[in-house]
Amino acid sequence: MGFLRNIGLAILAISGLIFVALFGRLPVFRKTPIGFAHRTIWIYIPNGIASLDRHLFGGRFFQIWNRLGSYILHDNHPLILIFFVSLLLGGEYLFIPTAWSRISTVHRFLIPVAVLPPYLLLYACVVTKSFITPENHARELHRYPYDRLLFHAGHDCSTCRFPKPARSKHCSICKACVSRHDHHCVWLMNCVGLHNYQYFLSLLVSVSALLIYGSYLGHELLIQTLDELDPSRLRSITQWSSIDNWMTFFNIWALAIAADIRIGFVYLLAVMCIPLALAFLAYHTYLVWAGMTTNESAKWDDLKDDIADGCVFRSTKKEIYGDSPVPAGLRDDHPTWPMTSDQIILVTDGQPPADGFMLSSRSNYIVQQEGQRGPIDPRWRCVRSLREVDNIYDLGFWDNLREALRLRFNSRKSAVSLFTFPTPSRGALLPFKMGDRSGTESKPKCTPAELMLKVILAGTLSHYETRGMIDDKRLDHMLSAGKQILYRTHQESEVRHNLGLSPDIWQGLSAVLTKAIPVLESQSFAWKSPPTANYDHSSSNLIAYNYFSLVKDIERLNDLCTIARNLLATTKKAQNLAAEKGFDQRILALVDTCVRVTARGFDGETNARNEERWQKVVNLYKRLLITCLQFLHNFIMHNEQRKMVLWLDLFGYHSTGDSNIIQPKEPLDHANSQPEGVAPVVKTGDRIVNPPIRALYDQTAEDLLLETISNFPREPATIKEEAAMLLLANIKDHMEKLLGRDLTAIQEMGKDPEQVKEIRAALTAILGAKVDGWSDLQDRAKELPPALPEDEPPRKKAIVTIDRSATAGFPRICWADLPDLSEYVGLASGDAPVTEEDTSMPRSAQSAAETLQEAKDELMARLQETSQIAGDGDPDYDGADAGVGDDDARSLEAVAEGSIEEEEEEDDDEDEDDYRGRPGDQQRGLLTDVPLVLGPAEIEALPMIIQAGIVDSFGLKGGERSGPRNMQALRCHILLTQETGRNLLRELLIFIAAWDLPDDELYFKMMVQIMEAVLKNGLMSHAYSDFGQPKDIISPAQAVVIKILTHIFRAKYSPASVTGSAQSANPTKSPGPLSRVDILTVRYIFTIFRGNIIPETCALIYLQGQIRAGRALPEDFPLNLWDMERVYEGVYQFLEFFAVLTENNDWKNLLVEWEIVYDLVTLIKELEASIPKGNLSSLSAGGSRSTPTREMATGPVSVERPYDPSDPDPADAGACSAGSGAESPPITEDPSEFEWRNLKKLVVLVLSSLVWKCPDVQNQIRRYGGVEAILSCTNFDAHNPYIKEHAVMCLKFLLEGNKENQKLVEELEAREVVKDNNGLLERSGYEAMIDQAGKLALRQKE
Question: Which residue stretches does the UniProt record annotate as biased composition, category Polar residues (predicted)?
Fold first, then answer.
């Protein structure tokens, strides 16, 4: 029993100590024992400890204590908040499960009602801020009047550097000024102020109610426990009326608590805390009754002390000023506050005010003229009590409560008789709602800049609606005026703010682009303009013909788009207004136009003047495209709703067919669930997934097309429709040409069974050529499960969708599948535990050796098959001319032209500039071709858009990685699951290789952040897989992915080796522990390296050796030089990646466990056996070859794009591709003689890093025959400079402390000496020889 009593006393003591420590400084306790105890805790005891510490430890202990205390008391830390929540959770965890079976149904209903509100209100208190910022400062200045007693006008906050509003205070912990500051609450880790005071009061009420209800319930349960122990005797003792001995009473209750320890402990804790909670509530109830805050109570207490000292005097404005005008600083001219006062309060040094005094405008103190003190002014009376002082913030208890809860007041009140002076009208003094602006505020008038811009927009709209209505002179004036507005929006924030918040401006901009885009297209696309002799149905000639009007129109639109871009640098409201008026959709349409123009080459007749004009217009279109991308970036910054909408616009499917397939439901974000204008609301929903058709790959393409031709165009809802839509998008123009009818007529033909045969024949003729993506769709169909029974209901899949019907003018739904982020939460979280399975390697060295042999056998067998059919005149796809890059992604348009009829080639060329014939934007993506158009200095806005959408804390005020609705992660998944998103990301990666961008380039850094977001979300393996190409061992995009991974892992796990001043400034930073997502990514990369890269690369090297040995012909080599350079670049990036990993011991141990030594030794043995070493004579010649080296990278690496819209035939591309920086290698070099420069040296470097002080690696190298391979690298090799020195160092590490390896080397025998033809030894008259002991020796040459 004594133990329980001690616990109760301890809880009581702790509660009392907390109350004294936190609230003993309040003025109400200043001259009480509680105030003395507070000073003892915070002043007397620390001073005593400090004095003792100075004598004993020289002040070191107190210095540490001060730092700790400063953190606890003056930093905004969550320790006390965590303690408070832990008390709530812990008590409820102990109480509710134990009591649940013993309570009635009523209490089971009441418990959740009592438990949940404190958590909700606590959350509201913590997240709701009352900070005063430059944006809301003007409103806060007019929220409360200055009472000229506690708060005076003219005082600036020294930290925030703006005038302090009345009733505000700067919080040094929150580092912000707080409106209606009450106090900084350590329990909430936040200041209690204007916006969260109502939540704070409600929290006190709910916690008090919870404690009282818990105490009552605990008391009843303990009574039950006593009844179970001894109902007859113990129950009577617990009644207050039958108390004979207090000691017996407490002992009996202690017995009940001991018998039911969980209920008893929580009951005891609740009883002890009830006084604390009620004291809080009572104190704040008193503050509400008195019309003041905790901060103001301290000021009132100071005034009370001054009153007690006789230093406070009062008078009235009527007495002081009579009928004279009242100074502005004393007027009660606040238009909304319902309380005024005629009183004037002065604070002196104890002497009554005398004639001639001066009243300070910034305080209550007076200045008396020196040496001229006159008689006492009788108008001032000494204040004897606080009751004589008016508090204009005290409206009466109920109105005070309404004001605290931010409700309406009853009426305007007066503290004392009001002095009559000119004031705003009575209507301005009516009751108002807190936070609302004054009722007298009217809509701001149109500013000169807004009026000017409206005039410009109206004139520009008329120009595009009716060409020629406005003459050129006035158009030039409007263009000049537009540039003035552009300059002002760039320089003046007020102009940006006014224009950005004007709905009329955004409506005008949208209207102009709506009319301007068709005009631009009619001047730029031959297929949209009637043919004439002026441009001969060539888009390039048409552009040159319309050169002068296009230059002015594009410049005019570029200025307007730049203004729109600048206007978005204001607030979210401007972004939302732009969306409400549909301006973002007009920008996307303008981007499409710009890309279609700039991505095409010059297709007109050879004419220097036309080509020059065309190039100038294309450059202007590029400028306009850059401005549009910058607008899109500004459009989504700090705006989650706009980001998700743009993501669906860019990467989602656009459905126009049966709406029953797409079923939108509830909004994704309920806070933005109200549609505004034409801006859509992002919603979640379902789409019907038809039963999968397993037999898809058995159907003909004609069958699929005929099934869906009746409602084309329509975006796919199933894989079956996806196949048909892909085919239709490729061949629509050819169908119209062959059948001589448009698509509508063809659809009518499809309704007649006899005419269907004609359609099928045309389709068969067109489909004789290869169709991009068809084989991939067939492979995907084979992986589908068998078809479901017909009577089984269709399955549904979650989607995220927006309705674009308002802007499209017809039913249009943009949607994408909603990824299940729960599968990736555990992987993406930084603290996810690493399991043994994560670090296991599924592919062993033995299986890798088998894979290598299979690759060699398959390659040789393929060569034999090729040689057998070589005379048939049907060349193999991979056996194309070595000098021309194969493009397996050529559009069907170019291929089908040759498959139908060669005589039609000239006519078909006229349709080449019809961009519609390509796979549509749905398959390719609106922004995918932008990297093919712009250069490194122009493209920065595009990766910044992707950054803003998927990179955590980029463009956000605080990170967003939390819960299943993490928007950044959601968009990252959508980007990689949608084909359009993957296409864009692939091109952005290839851009790095095409321009050979260095690591310190801004574009490269942005792509590192993007791919790091992909890595954090656990999607790097999916990205690497999706970026592959069937004919490539390593595609260019995959090589760049590995390069970026190398950069990320070097910065993360080897910070001392990161180059650059920013990183090297802190070389002592230690690498962090290995995360689970990184381990799984590296395991996947290593699996690819072992199972694909090494076998296929070694097979190619082996074939090179067979060709050199005469067992195969050079023309049998399956790859051209482009392909070999891509393989080389990829393998080199893999080796550099593993080289970086070996710099970290944890990664090194993991690689050793996976036996990477086998793969490295296998590669070096194949290189040694099949690739001859370069001699000194070939060193200079080899340096000029096109094979890239790491020491001297003079130009971009060779990249063959999977799809180049600038020319339908890559073979004719030459060097004219706009925006391409890749250089073609010499076509005369034989790919079978590829030298793999520096590859062997890099392998030796990686082995050296692995084997250093690692006996396991020493043994692995010996077991896989690597000792002899490394020894063979000690010979000079011009293809691998300094490999001899690296090999010697590797041998040193290999033999160090390893008897078996040393013995192996000792037993090696010298077989021959390399001849030193005309070398130093020969010129000196000596030669090398092997003596009788088998050792190397020198002898004089005979």
Answer: 841-850, 1178-1189
